[in-house]
Design goal:
This protein is of the alpha+beta class and 427 residues long. The protein has 13 helices and 22 strands. It folds into 2 domains: 258 residues, FAD/NAD(P)-binding domain, CATH 3.50.50; 152 residues, no CATH class. A 6-stranded antiparallel beta barrel has the order 14-17-16-15-18-19. Strands 8-3-2-12-21 form a 5-stranded parallel sheet, with helices on both faces.
Length: 427
């Protein structure tokens, strides 16, 4: 390529938002340049949903707003323009069958994220789109308060590309191995934007000691996790969690993590209490324990525990209780039974931190929504600069919400940037 290239729309980042923006702008007739610093597009898309790709969430707009922070209603116009049914139609048109699973989570029937990526790229097409890989955007080209284009850096040197419209779709900082290293925040600052507190969200939690490590690989379903802050109950979630060598992970832990990360960083004492028997209140659980102990009075306690808990949890549980597992059931006194009950209802872990961006599904913080026009995704500070995807200060709970945000904002930004180029060209 020569050192000067002229385009109508330049898109920085070939993730979910960038691909949607490029496809929509190109379909509307704009000459598009898509710049990606990795050697291929959609790296992060390929690992979403553990490689299965949780495409979207089949819920109402209201459900979306409840699950998106800090201000889901900012997306009202973006969702009106392009929503869950629209992305699913694209995928179905290009041969990807989908299925809706528990919790309204939508996946490809094939369980392969690569099929979703291929379909989106097929929808994009190649007409009007140039793609440059292994090029990092070093800076926006701004002259006398007007956006002129971008400067890229690669192994072969720096190249300037020119366009009146630039869309930043660089993602956040989560999973940096996929190329998300916060580049978009610096580009936004060059345009005069502020960046709200950037931190990991939907991230596993590191806990004190080796208690979780002893249970590594054990998954629990239908449990309740309660967050305790300085001894006071703060929030709770019901569902699945898993123990890891460093602490706790799984859907309900990831959901709680958004607030826990902030609480820990502010110096609070944060604990997670796991209710292993949320369907039973203390009175009903005590009655069940008493019944089972009486019915199996001559059996060892560690054997009767198999009626109550997963086998991997039993030795750790007994160790925490300080009760001999070889003790006969009829020898268990009321005080010991009470301790068993309390630990089942509140299996407590102290949170010390998190593994950082390398394990975080999403990034919280970014370009404030107050600095972006919700009807267009255009910057309120620099004309013809647009934002889409995770670079914006919007993040959501697990379940397909975050990917839909990327699809919707990318499509809208691409549409409006292309419309902007068309109206400018007719002046």
């Amino acid at each position: 390529m020569s050192n000067t290239q002229q385009y109508d729309v330049i898109i920085i980042g070939a993730g979910a938002a960038g691909l949607m923006a490029a496809g929509r702008a190109a379909h509307l007739g704009a000459r598009v340049l898509l710049v990606e610093k990795m050697r291929q597009a959609g790296r992060k898309l390929l690992i979403t949903g553990k490689g299965r790709c949780n495409i979207t969430h089949d819920g109402t707009e209201v459900e979306y707003f409840k699950n998106i922070f800090p201000n889901g209603r900012f997306l009202k116009h973006a969702f009106k323009t392009f929503f869950k049914d629209d992305i699913l139609k694209i995928l179905h048109d290009f041969g990807v069958e989908t299925t809706t699973e528990r919790g309204n989570r939508v996946f490809p029937v094939s369980n392969k994220a690569i099929d979703v990526l291929k379909a989106i790229k097929a929808w994009m097409g190649e007409e009007n789109i140039d793609i440059v890989y292994r090029s990092r955007v070093e800076s926006l080209l701004i002259k006398e308060g007007q956006l002129k284009g971008i400067r890229t850096v690669s192994e072969s040197g720096s190249v300037d590309y020119f366009a009146k419209n630039v869309i930043i779709c660089t993602g956040g900082k989560s999973y940096p191995a996929t190329g998300s290293t916060g580049d978009g925040y610096e580009l936004a600052r060059q345009a005069g934007h502020t960046i709200t507190n950037v931190r990991p969200a939907l991230v596993p939690l590191v806990t004190e000691g080796d208690l979780a490590g002893k249970l590594q690989g054990l998954g629990l379903k239908n449990v309740k996790a309660v967050v305790w802050v300085n001894g006071k109950k703060s929030s709770e979630e019901f569902g699945e969690l898993m123990f890891a060598h460093y602490g706790l992970t799984g859907p309900i832990i990831l959901t709680l993590s958004r607030h826990v990360v902030d609480l820990v960083s502010d110096g609070n004492n944060v604990e997670i209490g796991i209710d292993l028997k949320p369907a039973l209140d203390e009175k009903k659980l005590d009655a069940r324990l008493l019944r089972d102990l009486n019915e199996h009075g001559k059996k060892q306690l560690d054997n009767i525990f198999k009626l109550w808990l997963p086998s991997k949890l039993i030795p750790v549980f007994l160790e925490q209780l300080g009760i001999d597992g070889e003790k006969l059931c009829h020898q268990v006194n009321a005080k010991e039974r009470k301790r068993i009950l309390m630990l089942m209802k509140d299996f407590r872990f102290t949170v010390t931190g998190h593994p950082g961006y390398k394990e975080a599904i999403i990034t919280a913080g970014g370009v404030p929504v107050l600095e972006i026009n919700s009807k267009t995704m255009e910057s309120k500070l620099l004309k013809n600069l647009w934002f889409a995807g995770e670079v914006i200060d919007l993040d959501a709970n697990t379940g397909g919400f975050n990917l839909q945000i990327a699809f919707s904002t990318g499509f809208l930004a691409g549409e409006m940037a292309a419309s902007n180029y068309k109206s400018a060209s007719t002046l």
